[in-house]
Design a protein that fits this description.
Layout (H helix, E strand, L loop, with lengths): L3 H4 L2 H9 L3 E6 L4 E4 L1 H7 L3 H4 L10 H16 L4 E3 L5 E4 L5 E13 L2 E10 L1 H40 L4 E7 L4 E5 L1 H4 L5 H4 L10 H15 L4 E6 L4 E10 L5 E10 L1 H34 L1 H17 L6 H32 L8 E4 H12 L8 E7 L3 E4 L1 H17 L6 E8 L3 E7 L32 H11 L3 E7 L3 E9 L3
Parallel strand pairs: 13-15
Antiparallel strand pairs: 1-2, 1-6, 3-5, 4-5, 5-6, 7-8, 7-11, 9-10, 10-11, 12-14, 15-16, 16-18, 17-18
Length: about 500
């Protein structure tokens, strides 16, 4: 037995007796030698009930055998350590109930006899707190996992929805306008995957000329100002709806951009606008036709009526053949003028409606020019002369009907705007690649200020107002030449004459 009176000082006794933790001193056989009051409180034994008892008295039966083996091993290599490291240890009260403990061991000798002192702490409250903490952590982990799963499922759902977004893409950019998210049918139609774009700058996909304007509008969206952006890429047209996205803190740090391919819609709109414009032009054409017809038809019809009335008188008169021929000529000329007016309007209407197509075939140029001049022999002024010149081959490929109309318009204008006795010269030249025709007259010419308007519909030069015409001839010529991929130029001096030059490719 240890002599507490001789070997322990008062300080030791005070500390031992007042310690807040249980203290047990046992010899190498595991027999309890000393316990402090805290042990009595923890285990429900009186001190005298424990002195001389085995330490196993304080240990649940299921641990007793193991404890004995561990005790022997400890005294072979005694050292300060925590008992049962990593294990759950329990103490057993006098009433048989158990409670969790923490045990620290320390060894010492007294009169050359080894002893071990065990510091025993009731960790019931700690265990309870740890259990609560563990349960809270488990609950938190469970909720985090649930939330993560929900977010993952939501993201997959959003991806699935976005992936099926037709004719465009759904995009999310960070504050630097780099891709965070992108999905949509419009992406895959271009052979691009979202993985190729995430993390890359959006603006780099745009032509450099458009980047600054688009960036400005996206920056406005990042400031909370929603934007509608038209993006014209030539063969493709997109409409972008941009809106800022707020984080949980309420700060806008991303921008959502819904990009829709509206190429078909824009094309349809253009076609509708074109149709409306053509309808407008047709309405204008009809209006001008009515106005002009009332003027252009009135004079020839009046001439025809008056001449017919006079012819009736001359048939009963002797020596009236010359007078009859004069009025017959007037009737023929008036009918011809009416026919020309109608032909002009009919030609323009067909051209406007896209009903005229170039049908190329082989033709002889000399024969075509001669036919036009022969037809106009009857309407040319007194002593006017047609001069035809040819250079190069006379065979070419073109639409004979269209080419004839072009030449007829140019030559009939030369006749109409030239004085009696003037020359009208047709000079043709065939090169390896082009057919060139010049139609020159010695007529009234075109005032300088009117020349820029010459090919406009219904335009009449100032010095030609009193000369019969529709103002459509040269406009029709220009449209016919477009069908043949040709071009027309002219030179004119007022009072001296005009020279028109057309140039048409020999092969389509």
């Amino acid at each position: 037995m240890i002599s507490t009176e001789n070997n322990k000082n008062d300080m030791f006794r005070i500390l031992f007796e007042t310690a807040g933790e249980g203290l047990v001193v046992a010899n190498k056989e595991g027999v309890i030698d000393i316990v402090n009051p805290r042990i009595e409180e923890l285990f429900g034994y009186k001190r005298k009930e424990l002195i001389g008892q085995k330490v196993e008295t304080l240990i649940p039966t299921r641990y007793s055998k193991t404890h004995v083996e561990n005790q022997k091993g400890y005294f072979k290599k005694p050292k300060k350590r925590t008992m049962g490291l990593g294990l759950d240890l329990y103490g057993k009260r006098k009433d048989g109930s158990e409670f969790p403990v923490e045990v620290s061991l320390n060894h010492f000798t007294n009169d050359d006899e080894p002893f071990v002192m065990a510091l025993i702490t009731d960790i019931t409250e700690r265990k309870r707190i740890e259990e609560i903490k563990t349960n809270l952590n488990l609950e938190l982990e469970r909720k985090v996992q649930e939330r993560t799963t929900e977010l993952e499922e939501s993201q997959e759902l959003y991806k699935a929805i976005a992936r099926r977004f037709p004719n465009g893409t759904i995009n999310v950019f960070d504050k630097d306008l780099n891709y965070i998210f992108v999905e949509g049918q419009g992406l895959y139609s271009l052979g691009i995957t979202s993985e190729n774009l995430v993390g890359t700058p959006y603006l780099n996909r745009l032509p450099s000329s458009l980047r600054k304007g688009i960036e400005t509008k996206l920056r406005l969206a990042l400031r909370g100002i929603n934007q509608t952006i038209d993006l014209d890429l030539g063969d493709r047209h997109y409409e972008l709806q941009a809106a800022g996205m707020r984080s949980e803190s309420g700060k806008i740090d991303k921008v959502l951009v819904v990009e829709s391919n509206v190429t078909k819609q824009k094309k349809a709109e253009k076609e509708v606008m074109g149709a409306l414009e053509r309808e407008k032009e047709l309405g204008e054409l009809k209006s001008r036709f009515v106005s002009m017809a009332s003027h252009e038809f009135r004079t020839p019809l009046g001439t025809i009526l008056s001449s017919v009335s006079l012819l009736e008188k001359y048939f009963d008169m002797e020596d009236s053949a010359e007078k009859r021929d004069k009025h017959v000529g007037r009737i023929k000329n008036s009918v011809r003028n009416l026919t020309n007016v109608l032909n002009d309007f009919l030609s323009l209407d067909k051209l406007q409606s896209g009903l005229v197509q170039a049908n190329r075939t082989s033709l002889n140029l000399r024969e075509l020019l001669n036919e036009v001049c022969d037809e106009l022999e009857q309407v040319k002024r007194k002593n006017q002369v047609f001069i035809l010149e040819y250079q190069g081959e006379e065979e070419m490929v073109a639409d004979p009907h269209i080419l004839e109309n072009i030449v007829y318009n140019l030559v009939s204008n030369a006749v109409k705007y030239s004085e009696e006795g003037g020359e009208i010269k047709l000079s043709s030249k065939m090169t390896k690649k082009r057919f060139i025709l010049e139609v020159c007259d010695e007529g009234i010419g075109i005032p300088q200020e009117d020349q820029k308007h010459l090919f406009e519909r219904f335009f009449r030069a100032e010095n030609a107002i009193n000369i019969q015409g529709t103002g459509l001839g040269l406009n029709i010529v220009g449209k016919y030449l477009e069908l043949l991929k040709g071009k027309i130029t002219f030179e004119s001096v007022e009072g001296e004459g005009t020279c028109f030059t057309i140039s048409i490719p020999r092969e389509p």
